[in-house]
Amino acid sequence: MRERTLVGKVPVDIPEVIPPRSLVILRAADEKTPDWKKDVGRKFRVGYYNRRDGLDCVWLVNEKGEYEQTTDRLSLLRYFSIEKLSRERDYYGESRPTLRPLRPARQKA
Q1: Could you tell me if 73 and 56 are in contact, meaning their C-beta atoms sit under 8 angstroms apart?
Q2: Do 55 and 49 contact (CB within 8 A), yes or no?
Q3: How many CA atoms does the CB half-sphere of 85 hold within 13 Å?
Q4: How far is CA 109 from CA 8, 105, 106, in A?
Q5: Apex CA 57: angle with CA 93 and CA 78, to 5°?
Q6: For the whole model, what pTM was predicted?
Q7: Tens of pLDDT along 7-58?
Q8: CA distances from 56 to 14, 52, 72, 92, 106 (A)
Q9: What are the helix (H) ranges across the chain?
Q10: Taking the CA atoms of the chain, what radius of gyration do you get in angstroms?
Q11: How high is the pLDDT of residue 12?
């Protein structure tokens, strides 16, 4: 049975490897992740994977486009919600440009 999550209001299957460029929001922190408490609500993108680290080492890219920290798939699914699941298939980003800073959200009129 495949894992599922809501992306927005749409239920989707969660792939074995969370695609790079996916947008996630830190939703929770606990005694196992005390350093994350101050970051609850922050948005990150999943960065491109590194062959040395493997596909279970998920790089979190901050608002500035900097590879800030890592987590694993299980922790990502436990503590983050997926806001946008990317369709990126090049997990290592070998033929892709680097991730740029996030654009500020547009204000609704």
Answers
A1: yes
A2: yes
A3: 19
A4: 21, 12, 9
A5: 120
A6: 0.85
A7: 767 778 889 999 999 999 999 999 999 999 999 999 999 999 999 999 999 9
A8: 14, 11, 5, 13, 33
A9: 73-79
A10: 14
A11: 80
